[in-house]
Amino acid sequence: MAIAPGTWWEDGTTEGLRLQQRFAAAGWSLEIPAATAGRWRWFSASDSVRLKLLQRAWADPGIDAVVAVAGGWGSARLLEAGWQPGPRPLWLVGFSDASALLLAQLAAGNGGGIHGGLQGDDAAWARLVALLRGERVAPLQGVGWRDGIATGPLVVANLTVATSLIGTHWWPRLAGCVLVLEDVGEEPYRIDRMLTQWRTAGVLEGVAGIGLGRFRWKQDDVLPGDLTMDEVLRERLGDLGVPLVAGLPVGHGQPNLALPQGRLAQLDGQRGSLALA
Question: Is 182 a catalytic residue?
């Protein structure tokens, strides 16, 4: 079932048809409820309606997966409204603002979360299909920034959205995990501010390794002497004593290659790779 857990789906009609064709080619059917393609103020529907869609998905044994078709903001409002991942395993696919739902699902001890988008090219789509079918997928290649090998369960999230959940009961345990972060539209000083909060809140203690996807922003207001994005990321994360890999093809932009939450993975800081175990 397709949902727009936050902001309204800007190109729902055209994109919806394309997604239904993709799902059909994989042998699946995709339900797009009217509320998913609707618009209520800035959101696809009111909080209560969006919440009911999630609750119905977990209660319906005929639904095997929930896919987020839009981002923006508003997913965390559904947590506040009372959403709790149901007891049965259910695939939940999304990224960006939907990170709030993925992290809540992980914090509840439920598997099935996949950080990834639906709008990528055929190769990205094939990877997502393979994960949904339980098939093996290729490692992701980035650039090693700090040597070492880390093995642990994956936690993948948008940095801004994840930061907003610190201190809530939707925050998953990060000790021993391989953490992968990405973001978009945030200037280096804001990334510095958020990572400083993570450090001072102690939530990075015990993390086994860190991978970095894309951190995209408009470089219109760079002043002489400003830290670059890479400098901020290296300085805030490079002294934690764990393997660090940057440049992974994850997050906003293409390709946005899917990663399964909670799956055991290996991060190799020398090779600059991230592979599922």
Answer: yes
Choose, from 44, 96, 99, 273, the residue flagged as catalytic.
96
Give me the catalytic one of 44, 99, 115, 182. Answer: 182
Which tens digits make up the pLDDT trace of 2-36?
999 999 998 777 889 999 999 999 999 999 999 99
Q: Could you confirm whether 75 is annotated as catalytic? A: no
Q: Pick the catalytic residue from 44, 75, 252, 273.
A: 252
Give the domains, in start order, of the chain with CATH numbers.
2-132 (3.40.50.10740), 140-276 (3.50.30.60)
Determine the Cα–Cα distance for residues 183 and 95; give it in Å rounded to an integer.
10
Decide if 96 is catalytic: yes
Is residue 149 within 8 A of residue 243, CB to CB? The reply is: yes
Q: What is the pTM of this model?
A: 0.95
The bridge status of strand 273-276 relative to strand 178-184 is unpaired
Give the chain's radius of gyration (CA, Å): 18
**Taking the C-alpha atoms of 257, 261, 264 and 267 in order, what is their torsion angle to the nearest 10 degrees?**
50
